């Protein structure tokens, strides 16, 4: 398999668990996409129309600041993981993608959700990584087995 990075944003730990399983399956390196200002429980309350996450997701131009940049130069494949918010990736994912030169790389989105699909996530993210091949990705459970994750990775034919 190509040199692989698993970059992920995890607000509650669910996506982090899945990213670690994916790293074990691929032998890839992990990079946590951390916001400059951590999200509190109140920030993540999607029932509150004035919560931080709600306001960010209502603004397509929102790009929450990251705590630290990533160096993706040595990688051929970049898996990008996140919880599904409002049927798409949180805007900090676009912050991450836009901060990297992903030209010539394969970007594979993966999400965690209690019931949402990937929807149009790949199409929404593609403009944030010009020159990259963006795959459609998949929503998985944080509790997905190593065998399930491996079957998905194998189906991508990345080698």
Word description of this protein:
The protein has 159 residues and is α/β, with parallel strands linked by helices. 27% of the residues lie in helices and 18% in strands. Strands 1, 2, 3, 4, 5 and 6 form a 6-stranded parallel sheet that branches. It starts with a strand and ends with a helix. The model has no long low-confidence stretch (mean pLDDT 94).
State the gist of this model.
The protein has about 160 residues and is α/β, with parallel strands linked by helices.
Give a count of the beta strands, DSSP E runs of length 2 or more: 6
Low-confidence stretches: none
Rg calculated over all Cα atoms: 15 Å
Secondary structure category? alpha/beta
Counting DSSP H or I runs of 4 or more residues, the number of helices is: 5
Question: Gap between N and C termini, in Å?
Answer: 4 Å
| Largest sheet descriptor | 6 strands, parallel
